[in-house]
């Protein structure tokens, strides 16, 4: 009977998706949602999972909840169960009334996780998902939020009732040693000054002062000092530990070291020394044995809600700009926050400082090249500590370069309730943040700590979890989420459901209806990039791709008037051109000429596609001539002297064009292109003269 029911559901589903894009161009999301709901209820029955009728009724009668639960994942079951699990742990009022959107964000985000909360394992007959687990919806007491205490349990390393081991002796050497004197920098108020009447003047702001202080010896001190290493070796030998002998040199690695260690043998000795002290600290309770576990979705959500409800006074609220982000915002802009898996103890340490003093440190100590060598970076400051490697606290202690700074920034933003993520740029790690303007009630996704380019070269590390596949995407994809929510939240969710419906359609139907998908979907919300991407990928030939792009441009004509959306339009254009590149080339020169005219009119920057057209029209001579035309246009462009990004963009295009030239001819081609830059090798932007990135790129190729 169950098999027949399953077959019937499949038939209904197929009928729904085949008839969804009707000739009248009216998208039919509702039947798909109903079908997805029916599949999900059947899946509950198969697994003998019972959910309260009032919970299911609440989901059904709340359109945005219903569509988000059943329409935004290929398999809605983990989302539905995740929402119910949050309700069991946090209560009906939290999930159904006070923080519904945050609960949806956590349920949907967790459905993408490779590991989920413990619960009933999948038991699909085909074994397709044997490793996945469903959220636990078994009856249990309401969650009580508990912040774990410091897990360290110091061991008595002089316990006479047992034989002391190697690590006991390591700790005893460090802790029994006389304190050492080190230079440190502290912030102090300037000394008091008095006026003529003997009245103290205002002291001003604290200033950095270097002082010598005494502190206990730590492992890093031994690694930094040849004398201490010899003393340590003698101590260990005297206590019967023969397999330990440090030889880390004199200040090869020390507290303020920034240079990389290049001697392989020395690197290994320092790494072994770090391992020795680190293992001793962990074994004897001076450091945690391992990093704290990640919180469950319910624990994480409860922690954010507790902070959101903190009763700041008016002055403190204003000083902290609290709340930093509304936790009742639409769930798509909360996904980066719901993805935060920092242990609660680590979060709490940062939150308490922010809550009580307003401290908000989104940057750390930049330490140079040694940060590229994790063992060396760790060895330079290995010491007793309450937190493990990987924690934001350890990043503050040890420092780092851009990756560390991006992590400190993104994690701190999330700790104070603001969605954020690290992001990659060429040779650099930055971060991106979701912001909210309470006056305009608009959301935006913006970048911080940018260094090697703008949004166009920024790839966000948080998953773009809006297309059922997840994974990383460029900055613009996340910006369209904020813009899509601003435009019309309900319509944005509708377009996500349309994407699920589209993915379920047979390939031949997708090929036929790709233009309709963009036309219908972007009529609902012009920022539905998930639909544009899907339609372009399904387009079966060049003509269809160009038709999809035309439909996209038509539906985005109004927003195209605003320059802030230029990268969005260019991104979809580039997706279309990348698709054309993968399709068969035009069969005739006439078709090639028409295609090239279209590409040039659209501002194509796909070097491989352009080169293919150029060579089809006139071989290598045409390719070289067209390259010269591109250089001439760049040199004549007013943007060249306004913004270095225009030069960086063309340098990237030059790199791609160079890939179309093979062997020794590449060097000759680069030399020829360099010749066109005679007396134009530099840029002067806002009064500053710098080398033209295009020239630098061509020089590399010419060498």
Task: Explain the overall architecture.
By secondary structure, the protein is of the alpha+beta class. Among the domains are: 166-283, no CATH class; 297-375 and 384-473, no CATH class; 505-584, no CATH class; 591-703, no CATH class. The protein contains 28 helices and nine strands. The strands form three sheets. The protein has a five-stranded antiparallel sheet with strand order 5-4-3-6-7. A two-stranded antiparallel sheet has the order 1-2. Helix 8 (166-176) crosses helix 11. The radius of gyration is 31 Å and the shape is globular. Residues 1-20, 22-26 and 115-131 have low confidence and may be disordered.
- Shape label: globular
Query: How would you classify the helix and strand content by structural class?
Result: alpha+beta
| Beta-strand fraction estimate | 5-15%
Report on the biggest sheet: 5 strands, antiparallel
Low-confidence stretches: 1-20, 22-26, 115-131
Radius of gyration: 31 Å
Kindly report how far apart the N and C termini lie. Answer: 73 Å
- Record field, number of beta strands: 9
Strand order of the largest sheet: 5-4-3-6-7
**Overall average pLDDT:** 91
Keywords:
single chain, 703 residues, alpha+beta, five-stranded antiparallel sheet, two-stranded antiparallel sheet, 28 helices, 9 strands, disordered N terminus
């Amino acid at each position: 009977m169950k098999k027949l029911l399953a077959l019937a559901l499949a038939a209904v589903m197929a009928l729904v998706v085949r008839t969804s894009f009707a000739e009248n161009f009216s998208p039919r999301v509702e039947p798909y949602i109903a079908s997805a709901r029916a599949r999900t209820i059947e899946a509950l029955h198969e697994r003998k999972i019972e959910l309260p009728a009032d919970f299911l009724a609440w989901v059904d009668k709340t359109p945005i909840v219903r569509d988000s639960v059943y329409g935004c994942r290929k398999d809605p079951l983990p989302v539905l169960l995740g929402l119910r699990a949050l309700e069991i742990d946090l209560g009906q009022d939290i999930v159904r009334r006070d923080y519904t959107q945050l609960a949806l964000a956590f349920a949907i985000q967790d459905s993408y996780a490779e590991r989920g909360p413990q619960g009933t394992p999948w038991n699909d007959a085909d074994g397709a998902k044997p490793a996945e687990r469903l959220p636990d919806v078994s009856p249990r007491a309401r969650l009580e939020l508990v912040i774990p205490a410091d897990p360290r349990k110091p061991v008595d390393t002089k316990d006479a009732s047992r034989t002391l081991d190697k690590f006991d002796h390591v700790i005893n050497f460090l802790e029994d040693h006389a304190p050492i004197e080190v230079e440190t920098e502290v912030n102090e108020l300037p000394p008091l000054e008095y006026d003529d009447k003997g009245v103290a003047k205002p002291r001003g702001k604290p200033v950095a002062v270097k002082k010598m202080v005494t502190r206990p010896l730590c492992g890093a001190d031994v690694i930094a000092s040849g004398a201490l290493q010899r003393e340590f070796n003698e101590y260990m030998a005297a206590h019967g530990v023969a397999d330990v002998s440090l030889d880390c040199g004199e200040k090869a690695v020390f507290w303020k070291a920034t240079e990389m260690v290049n001697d392989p043998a020395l690197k290994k000795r320092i790494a072994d020394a770090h391992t020795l002290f680190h293992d001793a600290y962990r074994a004897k309770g001076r450091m945690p044995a391992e990093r704290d576990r990640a919180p469950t979705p319910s624990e994480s959500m409860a922690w954010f809600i507790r902070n959101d409800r903190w009763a700041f006074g008016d002055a403190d609220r204003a000083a902290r700009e609290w709340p930093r982000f509304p936790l009742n915002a639409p769930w798509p802009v909360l996904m980066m926050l719901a993805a935060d898996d920092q242990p609660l103890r680590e979060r709490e340490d940062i939150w308490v400082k922010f809550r009580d003093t307003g401290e908000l440190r989104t940057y750390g100590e930049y330490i140079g090249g040694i940060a590229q060598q994790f063992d060396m970076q760790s060895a330079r400051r290995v010491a007793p500590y309450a937190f493990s490697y990987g924690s934001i606290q350890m990043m503050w202690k040890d420092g780092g370069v851009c990756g560390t700074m991006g992590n400190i920034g993104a994690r701190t933003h999330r700790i104070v309730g603001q969605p954020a993520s690290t992001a990659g740029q060429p040779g650099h790690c930055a971060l991106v943040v979701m912001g909210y303007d309470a006056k305009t009630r608009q959301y935006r996704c913006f970048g911080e700590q940018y260094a090697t380019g703008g949004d166009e070269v920024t790839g966000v590390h948080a998953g773009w979890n809006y297309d059922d596949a997840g994974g990383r995407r460029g900055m613009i994809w996340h910006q369209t989420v904020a813009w899509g929510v601003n435009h019309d939240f309900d319509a944005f969710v509708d377009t996500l459901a349309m994407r699920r419906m589209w993915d379920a359609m047979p390939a031949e139907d997708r090929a036929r209806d790709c233009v309709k998908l963009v036309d219908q979907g972007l009529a609902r919300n012009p920022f539905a990039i998930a639909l544009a991407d899907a339609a372009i990928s399904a387009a079966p030939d060049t003509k269809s791709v160009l038709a999809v792009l035309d439909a996209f441009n038509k539906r985005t004509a109004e927003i195209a008037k605003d320059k802030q959306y230029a990268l969005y339009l260019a991104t979809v254009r580039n997706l279309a051109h990348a698709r054309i590149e993968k399709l068969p080339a035009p069969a005739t020169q006439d078709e090639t000429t028409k295609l090239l005219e279209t590409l040039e009119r659209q501002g194509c920057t796909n070097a491989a596609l352009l080169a293919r057209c150029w060579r089809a029209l006139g071989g290598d001579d045409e390719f070289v001539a067209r390259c010269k035309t591109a250089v001439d246009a760049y040199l004549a462009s007013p943007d060249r002297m306004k913004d270095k990004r225009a030069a960086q963009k063309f340098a990237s295009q030059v790199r791609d064009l160079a890939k179309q030239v093979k062997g020794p001819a590449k060097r000759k081609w680069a030399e020829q292109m360099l010749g066109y830059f005679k007396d134009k090798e530099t840029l002067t932007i806002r009064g500053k003269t710098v080398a033209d990135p295009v020239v630098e790129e061509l020089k590399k190729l010419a060498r």
